[in-house]
Every structure is written in C-alpha cells, then in structure tokens.
Amino acid sequence: MRFNLAELGEYLRIAVEALGRYRLRTSLSVLGVVLGVAAVIAMMSVSEGAAREALTQVESLGIDNLVARTTGGLTEAGVMRRSLTAADTERVAGLVPTVQVSSPVVARYVSIGRGGSFETAPVLGVRAPYEAILRLKLERGRFLSLTDEQTVARTCVLGALRARKLFGYRDPLGEHVRVAQDYYQVVGVLREQGLDPQAGGSMAWHNVNQTTFVPLPTLTGRTLALAPEQPVDEIWLQVADGERAQELGVVFGRALAQTHHADEFLIVVPRELLAQRYRTQRTFSVVVGSVAVLALLVGGIGIMNIMLTSVVERTREIGVRRTSGARRRDITMQFLIETLLMTVSGGIAGIVVGAVVSVGISTYAGWATHVSPTAVLLAFAVSFVVGLVFGLYPAMKAAALEPVDAMRYE
User: Fold this and answer.
1) 340, CA 20 to 30 Å: which among 28, 56, 159, 290?
2) What pTM does this model have?
C-alpha cells in the first residue's frame, strides 16, 4: 500500500479538521497518553539517575577496593569488641592475593576552622597510599607523603568544599587551619568528587569533598613504628583484579578472623554493593514501569473508545466520502491518522511533562535524575505503537461500512 506526499497531506488535513470539531473530547482523550508517557519518562529518569549515582558512589569507594570496618561497641556477652589495628593492615595485605596498596584509616569528627569560625567536621587520618586507593585528584598542591607520616608533620589536605568553606576562592596552600587544638598547614586541595559534591551518599560513607586528610600518626599522636597495635577504624586494600573482588573479600575476612572474632569487623566489597543497588533498582523499575504501562493502556483504551464513538457519529460522512470515490484504504488511513495524531501529540506533550517532573523531583526531593535520549525515543515509540494498535480496529470498522447503508444512517 503506497501513498504519495499529496495523499498523506490530504489525510492529515482531514484528520486535523475532524479532531478540531471536538476539541474538548480530543484533549481529554489525549490526557491519558500524556500522563502515561510522562510517567514513563519520570520513572526512567529516576532509574537512570539512581544508576549513575550508584556508579559514582562505588567509583568513589573504588570498584577494585576492599574495606574492613571495625564494628566497635559491646558483644552480646557485654565484652568490649577489639578494634582493628594498624598492624592488621600490613599482615592481611600479605595474605590477600593481588593486593597492590593498603592503608589504615582513623576517622574523627572534630572542630575545624580558622579565625573565629569553627564547625565540627570529619577528619581522616590516613597513610600516603590512600590517594591511590581512592584515586583522589588534586586541584592544587600535593597529597600527604611518607615524610609527613614519619616526621608526624602537622600537614593536611582539604576536600574541595572544605577548602571553599574555610578560604572561599582564595588559594589556601601554605595557610594554616586549626584541627581540634592544633594548627595544620594546608599542602593540598582536592578536586570536587562525584555528581553531587554536597552528598556523602549511602555507599560512599566518607564525603571526600567535606573531609580533611591528615597523616594518621599525627591524628593519633603515635607513630606506626612505635605503636603498630594502635586501633584503627578501617583497613583499605586495593587489589589488581577487581573482577575477583567478591572472592578476595572472603579471603580478606578469613585473614582478619585469624586474630579477631567475626563480629568485630565488617567486610565491605564496593562491587557487590553496586550489584545490590542494581538489583533493588530493577525491582523499582519493574513496579513503577508496570504502573506507567497500565496508564498508557488506559489512555489507549480511552482513545479507542472515542474513535469507535466517532465512527458511529460520522457514519453518514463516511457514506458521502465513499460515494464520492473514496476507497476503503482512504477511510482507514483517515481514522488511523486521527488516532496517531492524538497519541503522538500526547507522547510529545508527555515527554515535556515527564522532563519537567524529573527536574522537580531532583529539585525538591533531592533525588538524582537524568532524562536520557533512550527514554525519549522509547516514550515516543510507545506512544506511536499505542496509536497504531488502538486505532487500527476503529479505522477498519469505519472502512468496512457499506456506502449505501452509511448514506441511509440517521
């Protein structure tokens, strides 16, 4: 079945004229498709935003990293749990295969500021390899060095937002900030990390942008050479084979279990966290996607109902066109194009509404959203298919009317 441009133009003209006669009814019919497509766009934007945020958070932890965190507190028997120690870091690094670098971490929340402005903020005591483990990027200056650690130097590296809060847009290198009761010299400033610099994230529990990094011995007041058994909050390992991270995490746990009870530490595998987040996200997408599909089906059924009513109301018009020389395919195309105009225009409006809704979700709910070209194309394709499927039967029913019977219809 072939049509030239002139025929298509005529079909469009007739369809637009017919839909214009019943503007309110047409608008209400299109509304169902608008809401369905908007739901699809909003759902996919939230899903895509969550996927990007999850990936960013895991990348901030390091997809080839393993982390052991001390649980602290008391056991069920009321006995104080032992903390992980700095010595555990060197020991397990030699037991876990393919470990490249490692670092113990001590986390504190202390008063930080300069002049008369202070606030409680996170401070991490780390060793020099921590820069490589988290793949930290420096905006200016340098990271903590082995010399800083050995000399127990009061030096610090500021996260991007921490530097901005303390110094505005001035260059802080060489300046001093007060951390707890001591003054530290700023030797480096990190580049902003992640999609949302303000958010720490549910997986990246250390917000690098807000953190101040200092040499671990300086924060604890004891060198690792003299006090290797000093307690630490975390042990970070970077492995060469990220694909085996889950397997190596088991080895990591067994190595720590040689000197600690299983309830004294928690092994975190960022790659596994990402897989869990994706599984949860898929469930969310299926549930919300089902609601969106139902909305589109309801909209399509509503349009089919309107088109069937339109066929009955315009039976005499169809008879006049048939007796004037219109073929069955002309009638079919006329009604099919009317349906497609409603669903496609509803789809375009729904894409716009869905994009606005996704911006609103991001602005007011604080969720990360992203309207991808794939979502737009899918929504447009779905609206076209809905028009095709639900418009075909009314169009064929209109074309099947006999001219004589149609002319006699009152």
Assistant:
1) 290
2) 0.63
